[in-house]
Amino acid sequence: MEELKSVWASIDGRLGKQEAIKENIIREMIRDRSNRSLGKLMNYEILCVAIYLIAIPLVVSQYYFKPLLRLTGLAGNVFLWAMLAICVASLAWTLFKIVALMKVDFMKSVKANALLINRYRLWIQKEKLIGFAVEIPAVVFIVVWLLVSIQANALQWITLVCALLLGIFLSFYTYYRGVYDRHIATIRRSLEELKELEEELP
Q1: pTM of the model
Q2: What are the tens digits of pLDDT across the range 57-71?
Q3: For residue 128, what is the enclosing H or E element?
Q4: Which of 113, 116, 168, 191 is least enclosed by beta carbons within 10 angstroms?
Q5: How far is CA 110 from CA 30, 158, 186, 188, 201, in A?
Q6: Alpha-carbon gap, residue 134 to 131, rounded angstroms
């Protein structure tokens, strides 16, 4: 009887170790998936920083030297100053988001990471709302005012409309739906799975 108990205890111990190894493998797979999505978000934010750092000097040089377009008068100045303000504000905001993402560490508390990701998700939702409700209408108004003031021809108007539609599509569908929404959803789902694994532990 004692020998049977010993054999059973040995088998039970090996099964317990195998179950623990299985859970560790699953946990690492979930963390790897989360880190990939976090990396995609970080890479996109860094790309945005690079774009703003290129755009700001271009706008400033356009204001003083006009190497690309001869935008003069009140409408031209308002347009350039608006573009500069948007680029500077967006650069500061993007750097702030990068600092927040750098605090996410999937080796640490699930609760703390969930709080950071949910806060980041809320920021992105507000960012989209401001873009649709404020930035796009303001830019469209200023550009239309600029074209009217310079008495733009039909080709310039067509070019403007196409550029605006392309910009809206790329910014709010491809990037937000394809980058932000998808990867944030992946991370949140992974955190839920990690939470369930923690709750299953004795």
Answers
A1: 0.80
A2: 988 887 777 655 666
A3: helix 110-130
A4: 168
A5: 12, 51, 14, 10, 14
A6: 6
